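Ligand-bound model needed. copper (II) ion.
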Amino acid sequence: MPSIHCAARTAVRTVFALLAAVALTACDSTALQFRNTDITGANFGTDFSLLDPEGNTRSLSDFRGKAVMMFFGFTQCPDICPTALSRATEVRKLLGDDGQHLKVIFVSVDPERDVPEVLKAYTAAFDPDFLGLYTSVENTRKVADDFRVFYRKVPTGGSYTMDHTATSYVYDPQGRLRLAVSHQSSAESIAADVRILLQTASSRP
Ligand SMILES: [Cu+2]
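Prediction:
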């Protein structure tokens, strides 16, 4: 009898040790140390339906298997957009070979002027792999609202400029919105976070 009792106790101990190990693993995976704002579980910006410069309808699922960094702007932007897209170029460089697993998407908030040819030439000037997307003026407002992106026309003499949200969003390779990246965030911090998202994805069965 004592030996059975002992065996039972060992079994209980083993179970507890296993539970502790499981708890630790779970704890590790939820405590991912992102340097940008973790918005995992956000109930907005879950998908989009937009046109690429060739006129194909594109949605988030087209990029499954890649991390996606998405940014809203306009090609005539004097500073915010060029800065954000240059930074995105830098992020891909910092990622080295993993850079090919990051898709950068630029959504126009100024489709009246950002016609397909203009949009394509603009993104390609930063990186030929960057993708410019657009839709009708009306749908642009809906998509921006879906992504909690603000924008408005600001008249400048005979023309206009646009005010717009400067936040970039990052999706993991499963297509889940994970990070909000501020305009002040560095390319290094974004590359570090994207690396985590890519590694977490590849380690999953
Ligand atoms: Cu801009």
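The chain has two domains: 1-31, 37-202.
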